[in-house]
Amino acid sequence: MTKLDSKIPEGPLAEKWTKHKNNIRLVNPANKRLIDVIVVGTGLAGGSASATLAELGYNVKAFCYQDSPRRAHSIAAQGGINAAKNYQGDGDSIYRLFYDTVKGGDYRSREANVYRLAEVSTNIIDQCVAQGVPFARDYGGLLDNRSFGGVQVSRTFYAKGQTGQQLLLGCYSAMSRQIGKGKIKMYNRHEMLDLVIVNGKARGIIARNLVTGEIERHSAHAVVIASGGYGNVFFLSTNAMGSNVSASWKVHKKGAFFANPCFTQIHPTCIPQHGDQQSKLTLMSESLRNDGRIWVPKKKEDAEAIRAGKLDPTKIAEEDRDYYLERRYPSFGNLVPRDVASRAAKERCDAGYGVGTNETGEAVFLDFSSAIMRYGQEEANVKGLHDASQEQIRQMGEQVVEKKYGNLFQMYEKITADNPYKTPMKIYPAVHYTMGGVWVDYNLMTTIPGCYAIGEANFSDHGANRLGASALMQGLADGYFVLPYTIGDYLADDIRTGPIPTDTPEFDEAEKAVKDRIDFFVNNKGSKSVDHFHKRLGKVMWNKVGMARNEKGLKEAIEEIKEIREEFWKDVKVPGSPDGINQELEKAGRVADFLELGELFARDALLRNESCGGHFREEYSTEDGEAMRDDANFTYVSAWEYKGEPSEAVLHKEPLVYENIELKTRSYK
């Protein structure tokens, strides 16, 4: 049976990464030309890894199901990327970023991995500036920073509300250079459908050309999974509709342990759901909480009048507004971590103070009026307009806010038809990021030799809750600065191996399994669409495995997901042919994987009898509704080994040892 070995280096925390790099094996430049690496996914993690590995001399085969790497879901990240540069001189440091990340994750992450992340974060900004990423700058021309939830410093670098897009374009430019040189062979519109293992090592993948339908064999000396997270197991999430778990799930079914599946982040600032026909949710950047104040009416009758459309929220007096985050968490206010802000919003709405238009009133206000007037007054003072009218001050303030968040405000107005400069935004929590993922060791290798997982696809750096602006940081850290070092330690054994042949029994078997599954889908005489089953799964997940969970609901969810899965395999209908573009066929395979993951997700949540970060069990909460951890029994990583049905998965525990940080109850008050 596979044993967990995290391979964390010995020595003081601050020296582990440097000593590890000094001691691991290398592949010399001439030998790198003899080695092939497959990278599945070309978002920030996969794209940066592809570009860097190719720059080092490896032959890279990069796969994405989109028509271009520029379409990866990383493009949707808005608010920024963290780095411990301390440009603001406000007390930030590598150690403080490390501490904030471990605390923000509710003490459920590895110290060594998180410290390394904080350490290499400073290099990321220099790398991206060199690529031409247009980060915001202050009046003196230096890079600007803003704050995000769960911290008391400004360490987030940003490019308006489109940071992910700009970082991805920088990453893509580095990839394009290597594509032009022939060091990266790019496979657009290809989807990985299985991992091929030869003599116990990952040696290739089976992929489907999504345009022609052709099933292809691709070999390499190592395979890197960089395919993102699994938030779409909930159907509605902030993820792109195509985001899926399939690449990660395929390697899990071939022997890679899947870690902490129940650690899923609910983001507090999303545009509320608008109806049953909606296919995804829209994120409003956490950066908005720098200047926006979150509130609901103090009086239920005011909330009811707003829901009924009879009361304009701007008419509610200041003393009749409940700025509940500022009231409950005075030290952090509106910038508490995402899990805390999300639960607080749910509590207010459940209590009857929500302001949404749906029956449950699921929305709270994110109001910029105070910031607009504050910035406007500053501008008036700078310009010497000491007798400026309130309207002039408001206009100048709106111009300042537009410079910081303009595209976000425009996006909100396009979707809701409300002008957020004049009327408070309505927001409500939604599924966003998944902290769980494929288990990896310190080198980012899974429990399958030669198979790596990076970025959101792995579990490694965030614990039970991710701090805002840390997803981009982890993806680029893994791709630019960690994997390119650590993969050489493994590939040093392959300099004499030669090209991996694809005409072997292992490739034959994997291709046959893929084709059999496709044949089943297109020939099954069912009556219900793939989306029918995905929506049903999503409702079970949100209602019973979502923001709040309890033993009764989780046990019901496990049984209900089993029933949905059984019905799916009997009654799913996939129209069209496998020989060409067939998006229903693509979705069928992805939803089949979600239906297995969903059950394991619920099992993991059921067995973790505590509340921590994004995993909130109602039975384990304090009197004032905060999460109650059980450090004596649950300070470990849940790593699940595939054994067939999700109900048969075997749990392995990686103990989490804290030598540099004291375990204590999180407090943001």
The share of residues in extended strands comes to: 5-15%
Tell me, briefly, the overall form.
globular
The major sheet is characterized as:
5 strands, parallel
CATH topology of the largest domain: FAD/NAD(P)-binding domain
Report the total helices: 18
Cα radius of gyration in angstroms: 25 Å
Domain tally: 3
Mean pLDDT: 96
Q: Into which percent range does the helicity of residues fall?
A: 25-40%
**What class would the helix/strand composition place it in?**
alpha+beta
The CATH class assignment of the largest domain is Alpha Beta
Distance between the termini: 46 Å
InterPro entries: FAD-dep_OxRdtase_2_FAD-bd, FAD/NAD-bd_sf, Fum_R/Succ_DH_flav-like_C_sf, Fum_Rdtase/Succ_DH_flav-like_C, SdhA/FrdA/AprA, Succ_DH/Fum_Rdt_flav_su, Succ_DH/fumarate_Rdtase_cat_sf
Protein name: Succinate dehydrogenase
Cofactor: FAD
Keywords: Flavoprotein, Oxidoreductase
Topology at a glance:
Elements: H1 16-23, H2 29-32, E1 36-40, H3 44-56, E2 59-63, E3 81-82, H4 94-104, H5 111-130, E4 156-157, H6 163-181, E5 184-187, E6 190-198, E7 201-209, E8 215-219, E9 222-225, H7 246-253, E10 258-259, E11 264-270, E12 293-297, H8 300-307, E13 321-322, H9 324-328, H10 338-353, E14 364-367, H11 369-382, H12 390-416, E15 425-434, E16 437-438, E17 451-453, H13 471-491, H14 505-523, H15 530-545, H16 551-571, H17 583-607, H18 631-634, E18 636-641, E19 650-655
Parallel strand pairs: 1-2, 1-9, 2-5, 9-17
Antiparallel strand pairs: 3-4, 6-7, 7-8, 10-16, 10-18, 11-15, 12-13, 12-14, 14-15, 18-19
Helix pairs in contact: 3-6, 3-13, 4-5, 5-13, 11-12, 15-16, 15-17, 16-17
InterPro entries: FAD-dep_OxRdtase_2_FAD-bd, FAD/NAD-bd_sf, Fum_R/Succ_DH_flav-like_C_sf, Fum_Rdtase/Succ_DH_flav-like_C, SdhA/FrdA/AprA, Succ_DH/Fum_Rdt_flav_su, Succ_DH/fumarate_Rdtase_cat_sf
Domain FAD-dependent oxidoreductase 2 FAD-binding: 36-472
Cofactor: FAD
